[in-house]
Amino acid sequence: MEKEQILQLLDEKSYRQLREATEDMQPADLAEMLEEMDLRQRLLVFRLMKKDVAAETFAYLDNDARSEMVEAFSDAELTSALEQMALDDAADLLEEMPVSVVKRVLSRSDPHTRDALNRLLTYPADSAGSIMTPEYVRLRRGTTVADAFTAIRRQGEQAETVYICYVVERNRLEGVVTARDLLLANPDDSIDELMDENVIRVQVTDDKEFVANEMNRYGFMAMPVVDSEGFMVGIVTLDDASDVLIEEATEDIQKMAAIAAPPEDSYFSTSVWAHARSRIPWLLILMLSATFTGMIITHYENAFAALPLLVSFIPMLMDTSGNCGNQSSTLMVRGLALGDIRPADILRVIFKEARVALLVGLVLAAANGLRIFVMYRDLRLAVLISVTLVLAILIAKLIGCSLPLLVQRVGLDPALMASPFITTIVDACAITIYFSIATRMFQIS
Amino acid sequence: MEKEQILQLLDEKSYRQLREATEDMQPADLAEMLEEMDLRQRLLVFRLMKKDVAAETFAYLDNDARSEMVEAFSDAELTSALEQMALDDAADLLEEMPVSVVKRVLSRSDPHTRDALNRLLTYPADSAGSIMTPEYVRLRRGTTVADAFTAIRRQGEQAETVYICYVVERNRLEGVVTARDLLLANPDDSIDELMDENVIRVQVTDDKEFVANEMNRYGFMAMPVVDSEGFMVGIVTLDDASDVLIEEATEDIQKMAAIAAPPEDSYFSTSVWAHARSRIPWLLILMLSATFTGMIITHYENAFAALPLLVSFIPMLMDTSGNCGNQSSTLMVRGLALGDIRPADILRVIFKEARVALLVGLVLAAANGLRIFVMYRDLRLAVLISVTLVLAILIAKLIGCSLPLLVQRVGLDPALMASPFITTIVDACAITIYFSIATRMFQIS
Fold it and tell me: Sorting pLDDT into bands at 50, 70 and 90, what band is B140?
């Protein structure tokens, strides 16, 4: 069923057919369609949908469309929508709503849901607790495969995944068994023989990025989460873990482009003010630090008063060393995020980058030196630029690779230190090297 | 079992205990341990492991460790390792090996495997075909739930996932049913009632990034792949799709940092030569284009001969407009990759970025104008810098947001056009604006 047909049914007021048509569509597609409607139409179609279709669709809507709808909802509607959602999604949604709405919703929810939501809402924003769900299939030791299927059938409606089941005794996680193992086993087998007792688990306070990386590393569909006393409190599922990894990549990319506290919404859902607010702080800091490079240049006023041509190489030297520093810092930031590089590797990294820098520097110096000699027939100028390039590139790459690792070591976010900040530092270095060699070479004081 | 204990068992030559110990460990952890050993030890431990543990571990090894081992393997060992792997992983591994080895391995494989591998090896590198597996659970119309479980049990050992089953008649995909649906249903129900007939599918030639994004959007665990005639040829599973999204993010980040054809291996597995090769091309291009900015500066030699202070603002203007351009281009590249922004949105984007640019520009101009007035007590200079900043930031943001979208429109990779290239262009613009206002304002010709 195409979107155009749905819109036509809406126009024709063929509401029953519309209701049926939405049943055959993917919730993600329905959500996209709703996002493009105005609020009145969107509410109408949403209310026409079957309850479970509506709830699923609701989970796929973007924040903007969702908050508009939540505002228009009655308390009953909101509570019902939330009750149909997975608990972790419901908690995420509540987190974005005003306290008064949260209180109203919680007071209307059944005690079990209220309890679970309250607990989920207390976990720190970037913790495993914030992305986990307390709804998983729990089995007991000694259960047969056949009984396990009965348990799955009983708990399955609520659970976020029925494919990974946990053997839990007195709230302690004792084993894990997959639906695949159960499906391939004999109905009379005991799960004690099937289950894996060496269960990798994470703490509820662990960073969500760490959890997502671990799940990715082990290839897990779900990761059990325990609290500080070792009691099982929930699971993180693969879909939420992938979202974390993708969000983190986006955040790193934006931080590296000097966007502070990147907006969580999509580009268009973020207001002009919010965009400006996230971009101004770093630009201001970097603008003022670049003045420092300017002061270095002023210091060498006599040099370019005597030889104005010197000024024309400033952009090339600044850009090249900035780019070289960025290449190195970017590789570090990404390597750290993916776990390929650890802060302790700093010496290995420096040794490797130094060799890369020399290779890169020699090639660039040769190319540019030759160009300058051909253009200006001035060997001294060619040598000046070539030597400056080799040294500036070496320093740019060493700063570019070591700063992110040092920053990570002291517990800060390496992406924050990345590209623009490093550009500013290496710019200053390049200009200093350039003019100090130039003044000596051309004997300008 | 900790790594240290394994190493101790190895030292003590307690091979039987070592074999048993590895059975309780996660393949990902075993792989990490093997990677840190020298080749001799690694082969020894690998050969001590149980066949299935060894095969699983092999799939988690990094390329370096794997190719070293493959070289040391006998043909029989290699074929057996490959036969234990999932077909898509085996095909990926073969792709990296010399043709002679591939031929030897294929000639030793059983006809079914050989056939499947051959087919997988022919799909283009970035297509859905290159990441799919032909091993999935296939059911027939009219099957009961109980019989479906029997079918899953029969096909499950081979299949990459048993959780999503496809109803296929005469090689045509007619429906999809999840193990969850089956588990929660009655054994006598027919799968015809349970299955969803509106199956989203992709073409075997579709780009793998598109497939991964679609799976992410729909929240699918697996995506069926059909060929040009509509015949079902395989499925893409979520783990492979997540890998694609994470790799793409890494690649985009690296391209935006002027790293051409980013190395596919991890930082340390890539040689100094390969690193240098991937970094030099863009640096050379950007270095030569920055000379263009230098020439613009030379053109205004008289201006800074008369007023040398003008030169000291060059780094600040260049950095600020570069950073502004990068912020915009980065948001575009990421938005395009995640599907939040489409090339057709260009006018909306330009309108939004223009307003953000004015806000940002006014704040930065005010801050810097004030600083300059306080430092130099020169109103004209303060006005010059402020006006230049507003104009340069506006142009930087407009170029930064529109170039990636235009590049995507003509079918090129927007990340390639990103940061450094845009920096060079906006630098030239900023310098031109600066000096043309300056010469008019201070009446220098």
Answer: very high
Distance from the Cα of A358 to chain B's closest Cα (Å) equals 9
Per-residue pLDDT for A84 more than 90? no
Classify each residue of B308-322 as buried b or exposed e, where b means 16 or more C-beta atoms within 10 Å of its C-beta.
Answer: bebbbbbbbbbbbbb
In Å, how far is B20's CA from the nearest CA of chain A? 14
pLDDT band at residue B333 using 50, 70 and 90 as cut-offs: confident
Residues of A in contact with B26 (CB under 8 A): 198, 200, 218
Domain A272-441 has CATH 2.20.25.90: no
CB within 8 A of A270, min separation 6: which ones?
A263
> Are B311 and A330 an interchain contact pair (Cβ–Cβ within 8 Å)?
no
* DSSP 8-state code for residue A141: T
Give A345→chain B minimum CA distance, Å. Answer: 10
Interface test with A, best of B22, B178, B275 (most A CBs within 10 A): B275
The predicted-structure confidence for B222-271, as pLDDT tens digits, reads as follows 999 998 888 998 899 888 888 888 888 888 777 777 777 666 677 777 88
Q: Is the pTM of this model over 0.80?
A: no
- Report, as an integer, the average pLDDT of A99-118: 77
Q: Are B164 and B221 in contact (CB under 8 A)?
A: yes
Beta-carbon contacts of residue A215 (< 8 Å; ≥ 6 apart): A222, A223, A236, A238, A241
**Res A353 pLDDT > 80:** yes
Instruction: Say whether pLDDT at B97 is over 90.
Output: no
Domain spans in chain B, listed from the N-terminal domain onward: 3-123, 137-247, 272-441
Q: Which tens digits make up the pLDDT trace of A362-376?
A: 999 999 999 999 988
- CATH fold of A3-123 reads MgtE N-terminal fold (1.25.60)
Query: According to the CATH classification, is domain A137-237 in 3.10.580.10?
Result: yes
CB contact under 8 A, A423 and B322: yes
List % helix, strand, coil for chain A (3-state, nearest 5).
70, 10, 20
Per CATH, is B137-247 categorized as 3.40.50.150?
no
